[in-house]
Amino acid sequence: MAHTPVEVVKQREASDLSRRGILTGAAVAGSLLATAPLAVAQTAGQAPQPSRAPGVGGTDPHPGNVTRERQNPNLLNPPSTDSGTTPNLRFSFADAHMRQSSGGWTRQVTARELGVSKSIAGVNMRLNAGGVT
Within 13 Å, how many C-alpha atoms sit on residue 62's CB side? Predict the structure, then answer.
């Protein structure tokens, strides 16, 4: 039985869509499976603990900043090859002093807050309308 060119194109489109659907479904399922343990750990409400493996480290009954410890897991549980001699080269604007005035607000990170920063500084600011004259 001969197929018209339109029927052939429709058959190809249908097979492409099913292949595409299978690949898309597999990719979505794979990403969900990969992130499932992380999501369970974060939603379980348990604070990260300073323990790399069973018998290494321990528990902390009074955790610090849980959100920050989850953002920086290698600070709480450094790799076994980390001797602790490299300084932390991060400083959050959220930790900086906020100066407020009628013109708005500003936070700055300089060598005072982040010692490694010798020739550059960062500023996070909000200027109110008409605040600068």
Answer: 0
pLDDT band per the 50, 70, 90 thresholds, residue 57: confident
The span from the first CA to the last CA of the chain, in angstroms, equals 83
Q: What is the mean pLDDT of residues 106-127?
A: 86
Q: What is the mean pLDDT of the chain?
A: 74
| pTM as predicted | 0.40
- The region, left, alpha or beta by phi > 0 then psi within -120 to 50, assigned to residue 89 is alpha
| CB 69 within 8 Å of CB 48 | yes
Which of these, 116, 122, 73, lies nearest to 93 by C-alpha position?
122
